Amino acid sequence: MGMTIGIGREIITPELGGFLFGYNDHTKSTSVLDDLDVTALLMKTEDTSALLISFAVCLIHDSIVKEVSEKAAAIAGIPATNVIVSATHTHSGPPTTEFSGFTSFGTMDRDYINNTFITKCLAAVKTAAASMKPAKVGVGTTQSTVGINRRQLQKDNTILLGNNPWDVFDPTMTVISFVGEGNKPLANVIHIGAHCTAIGNTQEITRDWAGVMVDRVEAQTGAMTLFINGTLGDVAPRMANSDSIGDLKLMKEVGGVAGIDAMRAFNTIKTYYDEPLQVICGGMEVPFVPAISKEDAAAMLEACGKWDRFKRTSLTTLLKMYEDGEKGPDSLSYDQVLFRIGPVVLVPYPFEVFSEIGLRLRQYSPFAHTLTMSCTNGSHSYLPAESAICRGGYEIDSFLWFRPRQMPNNADFLLIQQNLELINRL
């Protein structure tokens, strides 16, 4: 069977003075706490190849994902369909996506993307392709408390961003370890879901808590390690203060706990195997609900409150479409690719996915380690569980009003079913 792997990394820290993406358009970087990076893991067997790329940024625009995938695949000598491009979701990095109409989030820095983001990624892929070695694979898991549900339910039944200790989150941390001759570690992949926002709205560039975790695992295993974020949509980093307002001390505490957990998962791996590598591609499609009428849209826009920024932008765009005689697409569709590495299946979502969705997908999947990846292969806002929509909140507003046509409340179910169809073909 014989898998070979190669791994490469480059620094992608932007110059100081640029906007940081994830809080507002007023935050500019003034210092670097730790360097941002891109890590590329290339995997090959006799008849299959796959490239996993992890960027320490918040989100990556669909067009940038496509460009990265095509150029990286050409360097690696693999099909462009066999590439997964993921963002760790640190809110303390440069803008590598933008949302039409939402200037409060900032706009893409094309100079940075062209001259650093993509260029350095391709250099990392080149290093990975030049360092291929035979490898076996092991998988370890543990229960981690690095995350906590963040949809804090108030006495008046409204939802704020905070801590909700009785609501769902996925506590399973998974470590995939690749070893070479003499079981010497060659590379590691860590999967767990939580927002990388522990440091709060800072002017420092940082990978946030995930960087502390990765550094610790690399120091203790001697192998380059990449992080892929899981079902983070409704999960904050678990911190000592109940209101989830971050700072440097709390960020390092969260990262330290995560690092201990990751090493515990790593140390549960006792046997490494020649595992099969499979890649399967397909298409995802979610039909939009019927468009709001022009008259209703105008009335709803008039009634929008000061903080209804998602709704206001969506309705404004819809009314402009009516004026221009445009209908727009009837569905949201995107290309999907799944990687199977032995008992592990990587399932990318171009959304910030709610925990319940990943838990359900894993329960229904025939593979014990079915890992949902948020903020991967695109950027389409939140994907909530249908059960959470009735209570509203920031994530729900974003989901409902991110685009001029709304997705149905059961979008989570539709995408689970379509991903299961692909999984069952593996």
Give structural notes:
There is one protein chain. This protein is of the alpha/beta class and 426 residues long. The protein folds into 2 domains: 342 residues, no CATH class; 33 residues. It has 10 helices and 20 strands. The chain is globular. The mean pLDDT is 94.
Order of helices and strands: EEEEHEHEEEEEEEHEEHEHHEEEHEEHHH
Shape: globular
User: Proportion of β residues?
Assistant: 25-35%
Radius of gyration: 21 Å
By DSSP, the count of extended strands is 20
Please list the strands of the largest sheet in the order they lie side by side: 5-4-3-1-6-10-11-13
From the N-terminal CA to the C-terminal CA, the straight-line distance is 16 Å
The number of helical segments is 10
Kindly give the count of domains: 2
Contiguous low-pLDDT stretches (5 residues minimum) are: none
Structural class: alpha/beta
Helix content: 25-40%
Q: What does the average pLDDT come to?
A: 94
What characterizes the major β-sheet?
A: 8 strands, mixed
